[in-house]
## 1
Amino acid sequence: MYGVNKLKNKNYVKNLSNKNPTKDISLDDIKYKIPQITSKKKFIVKVNKDIVFSQKNVPIIAGPNGVESRKLIFKVAQFLKKKGIKILRGHAFKPLTFPYRSKKYLETKFNGMDWLDEVKRYTKLAVVTEVTEIKYLDRICQTADILQIGSRNMANLELLKECANTNKTIILKRHYGASLRDMLGAAEHILLEGNNKLILCERGITAPHTHKETSRFLLDIQAIVAMKELIKYPVISDPSHASFWAPWVPSLAFASIAANCDGLIIETHPNPKESLVDPLQPLNFKQFSNLLINCKKIAKVFNKKII
Ligand code: PEP
Ligand code: MN
C-alpha cells in the first residue's frame, strides 16, 4: 500500500526517471572518461564498397573457428559466398582457454594466413581474423580487412594501440568478465589513436551456468541495448561464443537482431563434430542456411537488411 501511494505522487515518479539509466556508466564517465566512444556523431563503418556497417545493414560475419586447413577454409568460404555472405572469419592465430584441450589442434599461424589470402583472392570475401600478438600484426594486415581483438585481449592496451595504428577496421570483443564501462574504456583507447573504424562485439559474459558446459557464457542482450543507447559505433553480437552450443545459436541471433544489433558473428563448419576446437558450437551448413532465412525475416520486421 505504502509503495502504491508513493507512486501516485507525481514528484516521486519524476525522481525515478533517471537521465542516465545505463547501468554503471555515469554522466561524469561520458564527459571525462569515454567522451569519444559516447559522442553523438553518427557511425558508418565502411569496410569496402559492398560492406558498410550502417544503421540499416546487419552484416553476418561467418566461418569456422580456426583456419584448420586450406581445404576447410575453401569449403566454408565457397559455401558462404553462395549464400551471399560477404565477410569470412577464421583464426590462424588463436588463444585457447585450456592449453591441453585438443592435442591435435595447432594454430596454423603463417600457413593459415596464406590460405586466408588465397581464399580471399579466389572468393573476394572480406576477411576477419584475430590478432593475438603485435609481432604477427604486419603479416595479418597484408590479408585481413578487419582485425579482431578477442575477449582475452580486450584490455591489452599495447595491442589495442598497435592495431588502431594500422588504420584497419577493428572488432573489439568484450571480455567475459568486463563491465560495459571497462569495455568502453578499452574502445576509447582505440579512438584516441585516431582510428574510428571501430565495431564493438558482445560475446557473452560469465554468469552462473544454466546447463553446465553447454551454456558457457550468458549473452548479455541488455548490453547490446545499453550500448545502442550510449554509443553510435556499430554493436555486433556473437551468439556462437556466448552459448557454445549450436542449437541455441539461432534464437540468440534472432534476439540480437531484435535488440537492434548491427551485425552478427556466426560460427559454421561443414562437419562440426570434426572441428578441432569447440565442436559443439558451429552450425552445420544446413543449420546456417536456415538461420540465414530466419535472420532475414526478422531483420525485415525491424526495417534492416542482412548482408
Ligand atoms: C573467436 O572469435 O573465435 C573467439 C575465441 O572469441 P572470444 O575472444 O570472444 O572468446
Ligand atoms: Mn571461436
Note: Confidence is low (pLDDT under 50) at residues 1-7, 11-17.
## 2
Amino acid sequence: MAIRYNRRMLSEFQLIERYFHRAPRPAGPVRLGVGDDCALLQIPAGETLAVSTDMLVEGRHFFTGADPHALGHKTLAVNLSDLAAIGARPLGFTLAISLPSADAEWLHAFSTGLLALADLHQIELVGGDTTRGPLNLCVTVLGSVPESAAIRRNGARPGDEIWVSGSLGDAKLALSALLGEISLTGDQLSLASERLHRPTPRNALGLALRGIATAAIDVSDGLLGDLGHILKQSDAGAVIHADELPYGLALSRRDPEQRRALALNGGDDYELCFCAPASRHDAVLDAGRQSHTEVTCIGRLRAEPGVQLLDASGRTLALMNQSFDHFTS
Ligand code: ADP
Ligand code: MG
C-alpha cells in the first residue's frame, strides 16, 4: 500500500528504506537485517534469547502532537527497560508502526530519536511492519542472557533488601501538570517532562546486577504496583522506609504526602526495583558505581504478606496503592 507523502506518493518500501534501513554493524550479532523475510541474529554461544514487546498508542500513552523525536526515544527506551530488568544484553529490535500519513518531518524526527538511542546501546533495528492507520508504535526487543543469570521476579527471599535505581515520581508529576491537574513553574515542568518523555533505561545496571539481584522489575506502573509483582511471585511482603525513597528533583517543592504518593504510585519512571541479600549490600553499591547509576536501599522483604510503609520515626504510614491498570483506570 502506498502512503501519502507531500503531494506525491511515497511507497511503503521507500519509507522503510529512507527512515528505518541502515547497514548493520559488521561485528554485531545481526547477520541479516531489514529487507528480507526475516532478520537473522546470532545469539552468543550458551545464552538464551530474551524477548519483550511494548506498544505506545496515541491518546493512551502519549498526547496527540507529541514531539516525534522524544517519542522515538521513548518507544525504544520502555522496551530496553524490560531487558534491563531481567539482566539481558540487548541484541536488536523490531518496529511495528501504524501511521496516519507519511509525514517526512515527523518520520525524520521519530526515526532520529529512535536510532540515536539504538546507537547509544549499540543495537540494530532489524525489521518490522509498516501500515497506515491510527498512530501506534510497537517495538519488540531481543536480548540474550545465560539462562541461570536471568533476574526473574520470583527469586527474592524474606530478609533481602529492596533497592531502587535513579529517582521516582517526576514523570507522574509532569503528566499531572500536562493534564492540568496541578501547576508547576517552567523549570520544574521542563525537569519533570524530560523524565516523562525521555526515560533512561538502566541496562548497564541490569547487567551489573547479574549474580547479585535475586529479583527485579522495571517501574512502569508505579513502585508499589510493580514491587507487588515481585512480592506475589516471590511469596513475600515488604517494609518500605518512606524517608529513604529517592524522590525526583522536581518533587522538592511538593508537600511530603504528595511527594510520597507520586514516588510510590506514579508511573512511567522506568527505574529498576530489585532485591538482593543484605550480605550483598556492598556488591549492589559497586554495581551502581560500575554502571554509573544511583541505587538506593528503600526497605526489606519480610515473610508476612503485604507492604508496610514507615516514616523516619518508625510510625506506620497509610498506603494508597493506585498502580496503573489499562482496564480499570
Ligand atoms: P512482509 O511482506 O514479509 O511482511 P514487509 O513488506 O512488511 O515484509 O517489510 C519489508 C521489509 O522491511 C522486512 O524486512 C521488514 O522486516 C522491514 N520493515 C517493515 N517495516 C519496518 C519498520 N517500520 N522498521 C524496520 N523494518 C521494517
Ligand atoms: Mg509486513
Note: The pocket of adenosine-5'-diphosphate (ligand 1) is lined by residues 16, 20, 34-37, 95, 97, 125, 127-130 (CB under 6 Å).
